[in-house]
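Quiz preparation item.
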């Protein structure tokens, strides 16, 4: 099963947005803030989350989301999304909708 998640029209839209004045700023700021985010995460991770957490990873990215969330929360559910990579909502919206419905109905 092969999905074409990102179309040429999508790519053109990204190029148009990022080519606009200031279009790259948010992306750069996200990475620039990594050191601050890391410190915040260290502080926040001292106490595990008590609410249920859904952690999904794409087939091609491994089980990193589930594994890392288990160290941060007491009730972690989820797993691998078949035939998906990093962009699960775009690549497997059908699967994601089913998982979200199951998670929120529990």
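Solution:
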């Amino acid at each position: 099963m092969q999905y074409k998640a990102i179309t040429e029209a999508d790519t053109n839209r990204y190029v148009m947005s990022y080519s606009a004045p200031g279009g790259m700023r948010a992306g750069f700021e996200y990475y620039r803030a990594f050191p601050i985010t890391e410190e915040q995460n260290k502080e926040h991770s001292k106490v595990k989350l008590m609410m249920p957490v859904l952690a999904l990873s794409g087939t091609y990215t491994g089980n990193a989301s589930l594994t890392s969330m288990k160290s941060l929360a007491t009730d972690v559910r989820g797993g691998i999304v078949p035939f998906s990579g990093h962009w699960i909502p775009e690549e497997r919206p059908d699967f994601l909708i089913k998982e979200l419905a199951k998670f929120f109905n529990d």
